[in-house]
Known about the structure:
Elements: E1 2-3, H1 19-35, E2 41-45, E3 73-77, H2 88-95, E4 99-105, H3 107-120, E5 124-133, H4 142-156, E6 159-161, H5 163-169
Parallel strand pairs: 1-2, 1-4, 2-3, 4-5, 5-6
Amino acid sequence: xxxxxxxGPFENPLFIHHGEKLLTxxxxxxxxxxxxxxxxxxxxxxxxxxxxxxxxxxxxxxxPTLPLIADDVKIEKNYPDSFQETNLDSHLTRLGVNxxxxxxxxxxxxxxxxxxxxxxxxxxxxxxxxxxxxxDTSILKADQIISHHNTVLQDWFVSLSDxxxxxxxF
Length: 170
């Protein structure tokens, strides 16, 4: 499951912490999933008007470098929690999915909310620790946000893996 890897946040190369490395890791995960016949689900956030992910902006589209195929599913969402008012759970149920491998942006918002909700709904969640990112805030640097969420989420809600380990383990 790839959360909100849309063009807009990557327009400014300094916005997403290690954005190019994040894109590389996510491309590897998608390619691995395709080869392994694992369904790829992408969420696409409908940002507020005037933001880079507003549905009316060019930045709303899924990042153009992702190696997508026709079978990949895109789910639009209006909230940080990818399950809230979407058909994500029913789609996963139809596929018989009980484990989610999650990557995407932003760590402290949509990634966090989706991991917590997935756990609460009974999914086994693997968060790719080098597959999610954020931006600096006025209080914390992005790497601090990422490290903090990896620690907090691992304590209760997810198992952690990195890109290479997940690719090699299946």
